[in-house]
Amino acid sequence: MKNIKIFFIVALFVSFGWSSSFVYIEKGIKLPLPDEGVVVYSGTPVKIISKDKNRVKVRIAGYIGKKDKKSLYATKNRKLLFATVKKSALIHKIDKDRGELKILLPAKNITNDQDEAWESGSDLFYDKCTKCHHAKIVKNHTMAEWNVLFNSMKYKAKTNKMQSAEILRFLRAFSKDGILRESD
């Protein structure tokens, strides 16, 4: 009986969207929402507030830009961007440097699968960065270390500006001080 109660409690949490979901963008790393004046970045973790057939209301929490109050970042070092807004009033302050953004996204741009959300960046990293050597283990380096490592090799990898941004975004997210961990 106790197991049945636990099952129903877990099911309730999941049905209300209290599990983590991610922004999924099939091509590119930015999802512009011109009507709201917001740009959301691929792989951003979100909490689902509500949903209907075509749209999902989500909450994105993070660190507010130090000088630019219109940006929301994953970590205190402000290296992994979650979203930008045209009006800083859209980001509600939680405490001195943390904030949240509540927005409507197209349902097709939300996934519960972390691997799917980051697949494009992961594929690019392993495709471009293993032409000359074995892939380095992403979690073994910090965001700062990846900046130096990747920037010193991106010319040999022959990445364009968009590919470089997507690879660096993947490396930052899964780095030692990143917000995610690669699944086995």
Description:
This protein is of the alpha+beta class. The protein is built from 4 helices and 10 strands. Strands 1, 2, 3, 4, 5, 6, 7, 8, 9 and 10 form a 10-stranded antiparallel sheet that branches. A hairpin with a 4-residue loop joins strand 2 and strand 3. Helix 3 runs antiparallel to helix 4. The longest helix has 15 residues. The chain is globular, with a radius of gyration of 18 Å. The chain starts with a helix and ends in a 10-residue tail after the last helix.
Question: Ranges with pLDDT <50 over ≥5 residues?
Answer: 2-18
Give the overall silhouette: globular
Order of helices and strands: HEEEEEEEEEEHHH
Question: Strand count, sense and closure of the main sheet?
Answer: 10 strands, antiparallel
Q: What portion of residues belong to β-strands?
A: 25-35%
> Could you tell me the radius of gyration in angstroms?
18 Å
The residue-averaged pLDDT reads 87
Share of helix, binned = 25-40%
Report how far the terminal alpha carbons are from each other.
34 Å
How many beta-strand segments?
10
Count of alpha and pi helical runs: 4
Structural class estimated from helices and strands? alpha+beta
